[in-house]
Structure formats: structure tokens, C-alpha cells
Amino acid sequence: MQPAEHGPILEKLTDPSELRGMSPAELSWLSAELRDKMIRTVKRTGGHLASSLGTVEITLALHRVLDSPRDRIVWDTGHQAYAHKLLTGRYERFHTLRQVDGVGGFPRRTESEHDVFDGGHAGTGVSISVGLAAARDLRSNSDPARRQRIAVCVGDAALQSGLTMEALNHLGDAKHRLLIVLNDNEMSISPSVGGISTRLNKLRLTRAYQGTKSATQRVLPRIPLIGNLLFRVLAFTKEGFKRSWAKVGFFEDMGITYIGVLDGHDVAEMEQVFERAFALPGPVLVHVKTLKGKGYAPAELDSVSFHGASLPPIDLCLIDPTEEPLPPESEPRRRPKTYTATFSEELIRLAADDERICAITAGMPTGTGLSRFSARFPERFFDVGIAEQHAVTMAVGLALGGKRPVVALYSTFSQRAYDQLVHDICQNDVPVLLAIDRAGLVGEDGTSHQGMFTLSAQRSLPNLAIGSPKDEQELRDMVVTALAHEGPISLHYPRDPGEGLADRDGEPLEIGRGEVLRSGGDLLLVGFGPIVQRLLQVADAMERDHALAATVINARWAKPLDERLITAQAVGRRLVVTAEESAAMGGFGDGVLDALNRADVRVPLLKVALAEGFVHHGAVDELRRQQRIDADGIAEQIRDALGLEATAPPAERSEPPSESAA
User: Fold this and answer.
1) Cα-Cα-Cα-Cα dihedral of 312, 315, 320, 321, to 10°?
2) Which domains can be identified in the chain, with CATH numbers?
3) Is 64 labeled as catalytic in the residue annotation?
4) Which of 5, 276, 613, 650 is deepest in the core (most CB within 10 A)?
5) pLDDT tens, position by position, 406-461
């Protein structure tokens, strides 16, 4: 219950330092306010709700112990940081979460001096923190900044990433003073919780214990005759006890003091342990157990659904009887099947008849649609966790062993396995299908998640075919084609709903062959991927408004490109337009331009693509409008290139924010 002497707490906070004067009752009430604000906001905006609900007390404890921003709090991945945002000056604008020009869904340095790192990908936090600690420790002893304290909050899923393991290995050797808070919300590596574990933790946090430990290591081996033997016996006994009881050997063997397991929803306990951990000379990992989605029953029961960024509206009357329930829809909406769902269905259909087909994902079975494959073919499904590099190289081993592996990754996460794609897949020229989900704009997750760079990165690679379908049924055809192909192939498709076409089985396509969808003698519009649907709308508009007839080509393949078709159709046109939902530099449009130059076809070319720089967060349709890659924006760019007047005033467009914009 709210303390009688206080009104609302959260909205009155001006700085996280004010937390240190609060009573336990006030902190408890503040925790409830934080969760309530998150739920009410995410109801309207979507967001990573379950993760942030679980870290409320961790956030309070860290901010009570540390003096941010002088001290540094790093949030690995960043999807745990909503409470941190609310406590650091963004309460009034939090309702704009993930909206254009609003508060970002991940930490952003342009938003607050309390945000250390612009993140969004898992596994980066420990490396960033080790770098911060190394920079601090290079300062002179007289510099007050040398006393800076640094903490990083890491989820148990991110802990298994290769980057985190590399950072931990280095940290154990470098011995920088650093607090790692391991937020375990899935019971993946939880050691025992209980009285003995608690007593051991208190002992291990004392300077006396650490000093005795060091002295024992230094003195015992010097005792004549029996010293080394006695030291080895004690070490053996200690290690056996450690592994059987506290299970801390993994971290301690790396040189990192392990403390755990704490209740991640007990602010006082964590605060006490954090303070003592910073008094120790080297790195300390404090393992806390939290409940993902805590405080909202549906999220506690189904943290997977409430982890994701595209939640349906949450009916608040489920948690607050005074809240009005959401009005029922007058007519149930039937959303077209997504490209992801179509990919999954076709893969399962083919795998039923071909036992060579295996599927791999890197911690994203639900988002990539492979959870359905897993349920049907569990022995042929591999979730390697947040380890994209391993996923890709493992697929090479499967292919060399006679299998047909499919690696499904989000476009933004596939970047993490670029060397493996170059060195392992393409160099060995093996039949691996890379299913690149979330290609193009994905919206509210912002700069770290837009799938805009993968196409440009892949186009230069030998042996790799790259395709993207104009609609969801053509994706079925491409899956059939890819799994019959004897080399590596990458299929790019968006998170969008499809065109609502009737289901059918996929049919093989000829790799490198495009198709003409409509003919006209004035313009040539060539598209790669679902943006082709917008080109058909543009062709209609140009003919209606300017009497310009356009040929529209569905390229299907960025590599190998159907150069013969495109160059033949380009001859004599007033303008050739290429369209793609990816970065312009090195993308599909550059491939068409190269083909025209090789064929000595001299014709003006307009590349429609994403503007150089990062694309910030907001609804996908709004971002497409902002980037001028929606149908109206493409038509507007064509009119500008041809010097034509618009037949009606164009809709007001906001300028794309600069990379330094909030």
C-alpha cells in the first residue's frame, strides 16, 4: 500500500540520486509505480515488456549504490532498461516509447547522460564494461575518476554468446575492478539457493576471506616437505566443494569472484552485496534470480510472448479492476499471413519428405518461425543460443555431412556472423540456406535492429546467390529453389504481412531469372523484394497522372542479376528506377547500374533506397514515408528526377533525423 505521507513517487523524481533517501516502503511503492507505467505504456506502443518488468529491483539497487552518471551502469542488450529510463529523466516522455522522435526502446546516449552505450544486440555489455574499466585504470592515481565504479547487467541468455565469453576470459586475466550482475530469469544455470549458500556468499565478500585466500596460496607451498602436498589437498577439497555445492567453478576458474544466488527482487539484499562487491580488488559476478514479467500475471505466465516488440493491446482491466476494458472490434480483422509464417510452413512441408533438411537458429526459434519446425522435427532442430557465428559454421559441418541445413536469422543479427559466411560457407561453396528474416525496416526497435545493411554486405561474396520474393507465395518458390540448389543461397524477406494470397505449394524457380509484371514504353521500374508491390502502384499513378507508361520488373535475384532482361528493357527509356528496402551504397541499385554500364546502355537511373545513415525508431509505415520509399514517396522521387509537377500537393513529410538526433 502507498505510504500515507506520500503521493505518487515516480513522477516527482528528478534524479536517481534521490533513491538513496527512500525507505523500504517507498521503494516497494516505487517498484509498483514503475511496473504500472511500463505496462500502461507498452499497451499502446509495444516493447520489451517482460524483460524490463523483471529488472525493476536490480535497477533500484544499482542506482542506490552507484552515483550515475559519474559511475557507469551498462545494460547488455538494453531491453532490460525501461526502469532505468524512467528513473533518469524520461518519465514525462516515456509515452513516446519507440515512436518517431520519441524515447528509444534501447539505451541512447543522445537521450541521457546516464545511458553509457547505444546497444540493442546481446552479448556486448561485458566487453564495453571491460573497456571502460581499462580506461579508468589507465588514469593517474591522483585522478578522482580512477575511483569510478562500473557495473553491467547481463541476461543469462546473453551470457552464452561468444563475445561475452571472450570478454570474461580477458577480464579474469586483466583483473579490472568491475561488477557483473547476472540476471538469471530462465533458470538456465541457477545454482543452489538457501542458508548455506547465503552464508558462503557473506564469507566470500569479506576482506578477511580474500586476504586469507591470498595468504594461503602464497605461504603454504613454502612449507618444507609437506607444503605443496597440503596445498594441493586443500585446493582439491575446495574445488570439489565448490562444484558440488556452489557451482561457481566456471567463473572462478576464469579469475572472477562469484556470488550467488540472490533474490533479484530484494533491493536491500542486492544493495548490501553490491556495496561489498565493489570493495573487493578485482572483478565480481553477482548472480541474481528474477522472474521475467514480474508484476503482470500474463507476462509471468508467458514471458516469450511478452518479450517481443509487437504486442497486441493489453487489456488493463486484467490488472486494474477500475480500468475500462478495451472495446471489442466491430469486425474481426483477418491479417494476411506473414512472410515468416509462410517460410516456416513451406520448410516444414519440404522437410516431411526430405530427411536431410535441418534447421538452426540462434536463440530466436519463435521469431524466426522455427518453433513449429522444432515441434514437428525436434531431432533435426538446433537452437544454439545467442551464438550466430557458431550457427553458421555448424551449418557448414551439417552440409559437409550430407544434410541440407537452413539457418534462420534476423537480418540485423546475421551481421554478427559475416566472417563465418565468407570464410566457411562461401569459400567452401556448400549448400546452406540462409533465411534472412526482418530484412528491410522493422520499425520501433530502431537503429540497432533495422535490416538494412545485409544485402550490401552479401553482394560481393563469391558463390552466394541472393534472392527476395515479391510476395509470400513467391517465398515458397524460393525455399523450394534454395533447398534444391547445390551451393549457398540467402533469401531476404521482411517481418511484414504478405499480400493475403491463397496458399499453394512452392515450385522451383530459375536462379538469376526475373520476370516482367507489366509493360510500358516510357519508364522502367525494377524492384528487389516486396517493394515490387509499391512499384506496381507507382506505375498506375504515373500513367494516370502523367500519361507515362512503365514496365515493371520483379528482379527476384540481386545475385546473379538477370542482366539480359534488365538491360534489354532499359534501352530507350526516359528513366530507369531501381527500388529496394536496404542501404543504397553497394545494394541492388548499384548492381543494376553496373549491368547497364557493362552493356553500354546509357540511360538516366534513379536509385530508390534508404538514405545513408541509421534509421531511427517508429512505425514501419511512417519510416517508409519518411524515407520516401512508400508508393507516394517513390512517385515523388520519379517526378523530381523527370522535372514533373505533382498533380496534388504531396503529404507533408518530416525530414529523416540525423544520426545524432534524439
Assistant:
1) -170
2) 10-191+247-289 (3.40.50.970), 339-492 (3.40.50.970), 515-642 (3.40.50.920)
3) no
4) 276
5) 999 999 888 888 888 888 889 889 999 999 999 988 877 767 788 888 999 999 99
